[in-house]
Amino acid sequence: MEYEVKIPILGFEQITKVEFTKIDEIFAQIHAPDGGPSFTLVNPYALQAYQFEIPQAIQVLLELDGESKLLVYNIVIVHEPIQDSTVNFIAPLLFNTDNHTMAQIILDSSKYREYGIAEPIKNFMQEESDTNDT
């Protein structure tokens, strides 16, 4: 599914459209349709309790209302082995599936101290395996 980029990914301001592909319930990928860079994404809700306020200006820009279908993903920097990969929780990507628009927002790190810019994914995998052992 192609999305119009309303607020670009930091450092990739030239990308105005992305192709979104769901890999499974946890992972997805986006890439520029013209052969530009691609990013691996993770559903943050599959890893931890994750919540934040979407600024009003972003809601207007993405045309979000109480009925809009919104997907939230975070960029993963993939390493080998996968447990060494890191997740950027401070800069989520928002996808309005109703009108096919997306934006990256940057959360205020002083307000959202529990979220990091490069949190190891193994921290969340360990928590999951601990709960399965009980």
In short:
The protein has 134 residues and is of the alpha+beta class. Helices cover 13% and strands 31% of the residues. The chain is built from two helices and nine strands, in the order E-E-E-E-H-E-E-E-E-E-H.
Spans of 5+ residues with little confidence (pLDDT < 50)? 127-134
Q: What is the succession of H and E elements?
A: EEEEHEEEEEH
Provide a count of the helices: 2
Portion in beta strands: 25-35%
End-to-end separation in angstroms reads 40 Å
Main sheet record = 7 strands, mixed, barrel
Gross geometry: globular
User: What's the mean pLDDT score?
Assistant: 91
Folded structure, characterized:
- By secondary structure, this protein is of the alpha+beta class.
- It contains two helices and nine strands, in the order E-E-E-E-H-E-E-E-E-E-H.
- A hairpin with a 4-residue loop joins strand 2 and strand 3.
- The N and C termini lie far apart (40 Å).
- The C terminus is likely disordered.
Highlighted features:
single chain; 134 residues; alpha+beta; 7-stranded mixed β-barrel; globular
Topology of this protein?
Blueprint (H helix, E strand, L loop, with lengths): L1 E6 L9 E6 L4 E5 L6 E5 L13 H6 L8 E8 L8 E2 L5 E4 L4 E4 L14 E2 L1 H11 L2
Parallel strand pairs: 1-8
Antiparallel strand pairs: 1-2, 2-3, 3-4, 4-5, 5-6, 5-7, 6-9, 7-8
